[in-house]
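Changelog excerpt

This revision adds worked examples to the README so contributors can see how folded entries look when concatenated. The first example is reproduced verbatim below.
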Amino acid sequence: MIKEIQKKLQTEMSAIKAITDRYAGKSEDMTEEDRQQLMQHVTKGEAYRQEIESLQKAEALKEFADEPASTLPLAGIQAQPGQIKMEGSYESGLTVFEREFNNRDRVAREIRMAYEEGECRVDDKTLAATSTKDYRDSYRAYLRKGKEGVTSNQLKTLQEGSDTAGGFLVPPDILNRVIAKKPTPTRIAGRVTRLQTMRDRLLIPKVNYTTDDLYTTGIRVTWTGEIPASATTHRVTDPIFGQVAIPIHTAMLSMPITNDMIEDSSFPLVEWSSGKFAETIDLLYDNMILNGNGIGQPFGILNNPGGANQPAVVVSTNGSAVTWAGLQNIAFAVPEQYDDDCVWIFNKTSTALAISKLVDGQSRPFWSMGYEDSGLIPSIKNRPLLGYPVLYSGFAPNIAANAFPYIFGDPKGYYHVDRIGFSIQVLNELYAESNQKLLLGRVRFGGQVAEDWRLKIGKCSA
């Protein structure tokens, strides 16, 4: 019987905690709906507690017994005349449920608001002490069991932040997350040709043939008739071979972190930093595929448009203004045998915006799904352009005079070669004397355009 009531009581306690946790660390007041639900759970919980007590099983509910009226006052906070008035005691005649989940939340908000407004004189030592995980854990134990129920170490921890008054402060709460921007999506590295090498340079044989886009070599047949004019009449043009050489380059990044930061952080700092290293490398791949300058780093698609063995350039604008005819010129410049894997590559904020504004004589957008799509009311996300998919890349150039804001074709014409994948080392000894650890990241790869005929690059005219 007692265990069943205890389960019901625990259910009410969990419901109370779920409501109050939504307001922990926030300045806004509790909504009326939540307040009513909270009081309903408090009322039910108090009824279950009284029912248990009536069965003379007080020992089984020691954790939830009412705290004595001599509960220690808040310490380390002095309100000035005309400023926020804090309660001197947690007792105040409330039930244990209201003290733990309602009054605690209110007091915590008042303390934070008063401190932010300069109304509470809490010194740095107190703030530092109450911000630790040990203090928060000890404070929770104190709320549940009272002063007599905490261990000597927990009691010492609670008094650390307010030695002079001997009281306990409501600790601040820290979420196990970091507020930060999201990285730009990486959509290109997965579309190029990925190769692996065991050396610092990869050589790939290549047939040098540029006569047309129909044949792959100069080999042709000769109509000789029944009797050839000579024994060599049907000789073919020998293929001319060359090679593509892709050198491997090394990139590194590092970050020292103090041991104190690792020990005192409220979230896994080393794991978070390692994740950011890996995120940076993923972004590096996309950036190098487009913009690598070939000097100690990969050679990107946009490094030398129109140069030898590089994608051809198609002028696609009138000055810096996008034209629909220019886009058509690029799309139809790539031979049809590569159509299945052709995509557009440009950025969203400049190039895609300019394209979306192109309209016909009746103000209907060219970049649409048909007549019924007039006005671009539906989202243009994932919308094909001239029937081909669009890959947004934040690393693609903006539209400007003499810029190259568009790439069209099959990205597999670019070869990305990995030598050593990205790795992270945590070096404990290098900076041990300065109380630091070093996160060291390293990667080796190369890349360049190997099949230039698969790609075309759009250029803005001057």
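The second example, added in the same revision:
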Amino acid sequence: MRDIRQTPQYTKYLSLIGWKVERIHDTNYFIKKFPIIGSVLKVQRPEKLHLHDIYHVSRANQCFQIIIEPNLSTDHLRLASSGFKSSNSPYLPTKTLQLDLTKSENQLLKEMKKDARYALRRTMNFILCTVDCDDFRHAWKKAVGWKRYVPPLSHLIALEKSFKDNCVFLGCFDESIHRSGIIGGAIFLIGDKTVYYWQAFTNEEGRKALAQYKIVWEGILWAKETDAKVFDFEGIYDERFPNKSWLGFTHFKKSFGGYEVSYPGCFVKNLLSFSQ
């Protein structure tokens, strides 16, 4: 199965938010142009590594830097021998957690940790429904303030426009509280039979109520209604590239069970000339 960043939907999304995209031999090449200094080329999770095509695209777009984040099938040792350096600051998660969606709902529940099952029982009366981008972003921004980056509304609209039925914005409401308002939410995307837990938030009220467990579980149930085979949590803590701020949500994600998948990391080459 292709990574979501190699799908036509993701290509359209990046094009709408200002990236140039070229597709050669079933691989997406993402180019970002900067005034005066030139462009950066990103190749993210390609099924096959075509260095000749990479250098061709870099020359044509006057790229001063190439960033490659290999897929599992990519020979990353070949990158090292071609002058690419391993980066300590990957752009994509280098380790993730996945669930096998071919398992039954009961089996998935059984494989959860006790605290996750407890949280689902506690939040069984919470209401989950689709919400529009504007309401979703407003609640997200209100929940996190300046502590976390929240994409502009135009990016969320572009995401929904690009993925269409393969995208859902879920909002969580607590019916026991006598006021309306989203206490948490998540964006789930489908890319080539894999559903991604793309971005999520909960406000203080939602965190205290353990709403995040209900949100993810509803996303898993939505994923099972599609023809997806895998649910991807889109990133957990990786000891190779330690970021302690990831430990908390990694513990949360692992409470759903699943299996870990590790990627080679990020490789960068700075170009002093375009004569490769």
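Reviewer comment on example two: The two ends are 32 Å apart (CA to CA). The longest strand covers residues 194-202.
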